[in-house]
């Protein structure tokens, strides 16, 4: 268990508080489903809802979160068998599957951000960004950035990468750079963008709208639960249970404002406006209760790959078969 000790934050393996001894007693009699997650990740909102409302136990399992120190740590834990599932993007899952891993993808979220500017900025459209500086969370192969670049080629006849100066950095740094005027515009994770907009910044281009205008299906989920084919085959009831509990949590969080109150302490919202912006952004990212359309995903992949190259795709030209899983396939 050396891997476990190395990647788990001290004292964090059972971070979901307020769930008392009765739950633990019941959970001891149920098979565990281990999920690797980040301490401040938005996935925790769904995990907390599943556990807090007993949606896992009602389906015959106990969801047990393991807090890890970063996205790479969740992926290492998944590869090493320390957890049964994590949430990641299907590009990573596709690369792993192409290398021989039997990973597959269950839809979790369609949430994406956009291009935002300060409230008083003279920039009204992407055409106004010529010669200006854009802060981009992640790196040159950030998926939102690639889609916006492809869109700019269509609407402007020029690539935003050629028209602007880019500054790449960690999401909190990009957030700070945008709010302090160090960059003229920013692309960030959806939840940080929601906070930035709640604080007065405005969106001039939506990634979802850009994708739609490129002829892509903006409803294609980019994030999902990662599972193993052989784990699903050995645990079909657990696999279906996870999918059902996830959908039940989503339905609750879409329909019931009160269900968000226990989550507020995990949401880093300084006021009601930020809380409401985060809630609205999460709800907007709930995917359809349906399998991923593999053809639509391939079109999206090809669009991003044309600009991201091997650094994005890992050398893949097409998405591998079996990449997307849906509970009906569990038999």
From TrEMBL:
InterPro entries: SsuA/THI5 (IPR015168). Residues 81-252 form the SsuA/THI5-like domain. Pfam families: NMT1 (PF09084). This is Transporter substrate-binding domain-containing protein.
């Amino acid at each position: 268990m050396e891997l476990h000790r190395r990647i788990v934050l001290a004292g964090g393996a059972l971070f979901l508080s307020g769930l008392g001894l009765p739950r633990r007693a019941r959970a001891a009699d149920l098979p565990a489903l281990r999920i690797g997650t980040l301490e401040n990740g938005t996935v925790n909102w769904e995990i907390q809802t599943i556990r807090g409302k007993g949606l896992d136990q009602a389906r015959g399992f106990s969801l047990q979160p393991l807090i890890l120190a970063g996205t790479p740590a969740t992926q290492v834990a998944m590869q090493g068998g320390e957890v049964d599932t994590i949430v990641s993007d299907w590009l990573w899952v596709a690369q792993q599957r192409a290398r021989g891993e039997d990973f597959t993808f269950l839809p979790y979220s369609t949430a994406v951000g956009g291009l935002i500017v300060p409230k008083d900025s003279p920039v009204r459209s992407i055409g106004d960004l010529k010669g200006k500086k854009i802060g981009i969370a992640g790196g040159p192969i950030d998926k939102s950035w690639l889609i916006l670049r492809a869109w700019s080629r269509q609407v402007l006849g020029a690539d935003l990468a050629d028209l602007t100066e880019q500054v790449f950095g960690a999401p909190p740094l990009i957030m700070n750079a945008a709010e302090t005027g160090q960059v003229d515009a920013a692309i960030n994770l959806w939840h940080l963008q929601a906070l930035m907009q709640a604080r007065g910044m405005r969106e001039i281009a939506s990634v979802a709208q850009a994708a739609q205008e490129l002829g892509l299906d903006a409803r294609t989920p980019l994030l999902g639960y990662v599972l193993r084919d052989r784990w699903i085959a050995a645990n079909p009831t657990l696999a279906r249970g996870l999918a059902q509990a996830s959908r039940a949590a989503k339905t609750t969080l879409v329909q019931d404002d009160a269900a968000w109150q226990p989550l507020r302490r995990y949401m880093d919202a300084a006021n009601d406006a930020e809380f409401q912006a985060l809630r609205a952004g999460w709800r907007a990212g709930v995917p359809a209760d349906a399998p991923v359309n593999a053809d639509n995903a391939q079109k999206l992949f090809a669009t991003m790959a044309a600009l991201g190259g091997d650094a994005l795709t890992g050398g893949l030209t097409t998405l591998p078969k079996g990449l997307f899983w849906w509970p009906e396939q569990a038999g």
